[in-house]
Amino acid sequence: MKDGRGRLSATVLLAALAAAAPALADTPVQVAAPPGAAACSGCHGPAALGSAIPSLENHAAADIAVQMQAFRNGERSATVMGRIARGFTEEETRAIAEWLARPEAERHAQP
Ligand code: HEC
Question: 107 forms bridges with which residues in the sheet?
Fold first, then answer.
């Protein structure tokens, strides 16, 4: 009888998931910021619009990572980004870039 009960609860679970699916589709998945990423938004966030700080909206993760590498090794001159980029390892930079490349609604600034 154990098998029968298992099948029943699986059915109930599937029904619950199906009922929840439309609600889930409306709610963007929130992804917590990796260490350091929230600081980027402090400068590159909406307040930077129209300032000398470039927006990072619509940048692909790979693009952000490549720019960070160029800042880090001095290939690209910078006022502040050289120092900031050197503060992160390649792995941390990749995690930050992937997070920043997500749509805004998915970015959850509080870790
Ligand atoms: C203190 C403010 C400040 C912070 C914090 C900051 N940035 Fe920047 N960022 C700048 C400025 C200013 C530039 C323009 C280059 C320069 O002068 O350093 C820039 C340029 C960039 C660019 C190049 C964008 C383009 O379109 O050319 C990238 C990519 C970038 N920042 C990523 C980041 C990431 C990732 C972080 C967080 C780890 C970060 N920045 C944190 C101020 C900041």
Answer: 31
Q: What is the pLDDT of residue 30?
A: 87
Average pLDDT over the chain reads 82
What lines the ligand 1 site, CB under 6 Å?
36, 39-40, 42-44, 53-54, 56, 64, 67-68, 78-81, 84, 96, 100
> What spacing in Å lies between the alpha carbon of 9 and ligand 1's midpoint?
51
Fold of the 28-108 domain: Cytochrome Bc1 Complex; Chain D, domain 2 (1.10.760)
Could you tell me the pTM of the whole model? 0.79
Give per-residue pLDDT as tens, 85-96: 999 999 999 999
* pLDDT value, residue 109: 63
Domain spans in the chain, listed from the N-terminal domain onward = 28-108
Instruction: Give 30 Cα–ligand 1 centroid separation in angstroms.
Output: 23
